[in-house]
Amino acid sequence: MLDKVLFYFFAGIAVASAVLMVTRRNVVHSAIFLITALLATAGIFLQLRAEFLFIVQIILYVGGIMVLFVFVIMLVNLDVALQQIQFARQKWVALLVALALAGQVGLMFWSSKKMPGQGLPVLTAAVAEHLPPNSEALAKSLFDSYLLPFEIASVLLLVAMIGAVVMAKKRT
Amino acid sequence: MLPIGHYLFLSLALFIIGVIGVVTRRNVIVVLMSIELILNAVNINLVAFSRLYGDAAGQVFALFIIADAAAEAAVGLGIIIAFFRNRETVLADEMDLLKW
User: Fold this and answer.
1) Which residue of A5, A50, B23, B84 is most buried, as measured by CB atoms within 10 A?
2) Which fold, B27-90?
């Protein structure tokens, strides 16, 4: 019961602030609503007993990436830009893409009803003591089975750092 | 507990809102933020399935996606700053030259 309440609470916040993010004219408002959506997603992670990702989401996404976004918005935000048209005339393309995506997933749900078995699986209510410690399980998986992807990710971050510095550097 | 479908629908909703943002907005910064929203929607799916099967691999991949999002945001915003320095605009419609 508590799980349901928490899920609908966070899901409602996430979807509502995502819609507001896409529709606001002011870029700073969009950034604030994206932060709200990311925090609500962190709540969903916690509700799914993924404590480590919950913390990573808050520290890295909200504390790192979004601060970077807000900095860049303040660097490039012009008052002139607010007067310009913020939406491209592609409403029909957007509607078409959204309908196609929703249709595909709806088809998946519809066909999963027809499959043998009892439809979609339900997440079982796990007792807290029976779950392995989340960070420990994650670390075991990350440094055991996924060590090479982990190293590649670190190289990717190094490349991205160099790339960002080169891109943002003043041309002399 | 909840059926897995709830999480899939939440993820689908966020994904579609993100796609609409990418397609309809003219401001490149909002387009980048919509991409972050899309990546986030995928993370919800991965964590929900990781919880369903009791396997930490899904969360590991969610971690990789967050790292990717950080790299993408850093490079993308660097490009936006470089572009703004040259053209004094952040609208996607104005980005129509390869060289000037």
Assistant:
1) A50
2) Helix Hairpins (1.10.287)
